[in-house]
Design brief:
By secondary structure, this protein is of the alpha/beta class. It is built from 11 helices and 7 strands. Strand 1, helix 1 and strand 2 form a beta-alpha-beta unit. The protein starts with 20 loop residues before the first strand and ends in a 34-residue tail after the last helix.
Length: 297
C-alpha cells in the first residue's frame, strides 16, 4: 500500500547502509534489534535510545546487550538510556548521536506500547502511555532530528506503523491502541508531504503476519500465536530495502513487509517462519500464519 511511489522506482541493488547513522527508539530486542543488526551487517552506525538499562525478568535484552550485538555484526553502536516521551531526553540523545557519528541519516520510530483493552476497560494511564510513546514519541524524535536529516543526502524516517485503514472494525476492537498507532502513521503521511522538497523520505512499515517477539509471547497469544508468526528478520530485510532506496523517489508509503520484498524478487518466505512446519499461507487454517492487526482479510 502506498500513497506516493513504489519501492521499485528507487531500488538499487548496489546500495548499502555502510557509514550511515541511524537513531532508533527502542531496539533492545525484537523487531527493532533485528533492523539494527541488518544495518550493522553493512557497517552502519546505530544509536539505540531505550529505557532498558537493566534486564527485565520476562524480556531479554538491554541497550547494552543490543550494542554488543550490533558491534559483533559489524556496525558501530551507541547505547543511550533515554525516554522518547521526554523532550530533553530526546534532544540529548539526538545531540549525542550526531556528535558521536558526525550527523544523522535515518530515524527509526520503533518504540511502541500496546494495550488492546476496549474503551470501558482501558485505564487512562495506559491510554496516555500509548499516546506519549507511539504517536507523540514518533513525532518528537523525527522533529528533533530534522536539522540533521535535512543535511543528509540519504535521509529517511521509517516508522513501524500500519496503513491508515478506516475499516471501523479496528477502532471498534481497541480504540485507544488504534488511535495511538494511527497517530504514528499520520507522522509518516504528514512528514512525507512536508519534507518532500527537502529530500527527506518518510515511510511506514508493517508486517503482514504477527511477528514472533516477546510482546506476542507475553501479551497477545503465547506459544500458539508464536507458532503462527514469522521471525523479526522479515521486517528487518524489508526495512533495509526501504532505507537503501532513494529518499526522493520512495516516500509517503505504507509498506507491508512481504509485499515489499516480493517486489524486490523474494519468492521463498518459508525462511521467515518461526515454526518451520507451518504451510506459510495466511488465514484461519490449522497450519496458517496469523494476519496482523489493522489488515483486512
Amino acid at each position: 500500500m502506498s500513497t506516493d511511489s513504489h519501492l521499485g522506482a528507487g531500488a538499487d541493488s548496489t546500495r548499502s547502509l555502510a557509514g550511515r547513522t541511524i537513531i532508533m527508539s527502542g531496539g533492545s530486542r525484537g523487531i527493532g534489534l533485528a533492523i539494527a543488526l541488518r544495518a550493522a551487517q553493512d557497517g552502519a552506525n546505530v544509536a539505540i535510545v531505550a529505557k532498558t538499562a537493566e534486564p527485565h525478568p520476562k524480556l531479554e535484552g538491554t541497550v547494552y546487550t543490543a550494542a554488543e550485538q550490533i558491534e559483533a555484526a559489524g556496525g558501530r553502536a551507541l547505547p543511550i538510556i533515554g525516554d522518547v516521551r521526554d523532550d530533553s531526553s530526546v534532544a540529548e540523545a539526538v545531540a549525542q548521536t550526531a556528535e558521536t557519528f558526525g550527523g544523522i541519516d535515518i530515524v527509526v520510530n520503533n518504540a511502541s506500547a500496546i494495550d488492546l483493552s476496549p474503551t470501558a476497560d482501558l485505564a487512562m494511564k495506559k491510554f496516555d502511555l500509548m499516546h506519549s510513546i507511539n504517536s507523540r514519541g514518533s513525532f518528537l524524535l523525527a522533529k528533533t532530528a530534522l536539522p540533521h536529516l535535512k543535511a543528509s543526502n540519504a535521509a529517511h524516517v521509517l516508522t513501524l506503523s500500519p496503513p491508515l485503514n478506516l475499516n471501523p472494525e479496528w477502532a471498534g476492537k481497541h480504540l485507544g491502541y488504534t488511535m495511538a498507532k494511527y497517530g504514528m502513521s499520520l507522522v509518516t503521511l504528514g512528514l512525507a508531504e512536508e519534507l518532500k522538497a527537502d529530500g527527506v523520505a518518510a515511510n511506514s512499515l508493517w508486517p503482514h503476519t504477527t511477528i514472533a517477539t516477546a510482546a506476542v509471547n507475553n501479551l497477545l497469544g503465547g506459544a500458539e500465536l508464536m507458532a503462527r508468526s514469522r521471525t523479526p528478520q522479515i521486517v528487518a530485510d524489508a526495512a533495509w530495502a526501504v532505507l537503501t532506496s532513494d529518499p526522493r523517489q520512495v516516500t509517503g508509503n505504507f509498506f507491508i513487509d512481504d509485499e515489499l520484498l516480493r517486489e524486490r524478487g523474494v519468492t521463498d518466505f518459508s525462511v521467515y517462519a518461526h515454526d518451520t512446519s507451518r504451510s506459510g499461507s495466511i488465514g484461519h487454517g490449522p497450519d496458517d500464519l496469523e494476519l496482523d492487526l489493522f489488515l483486512d482479510e
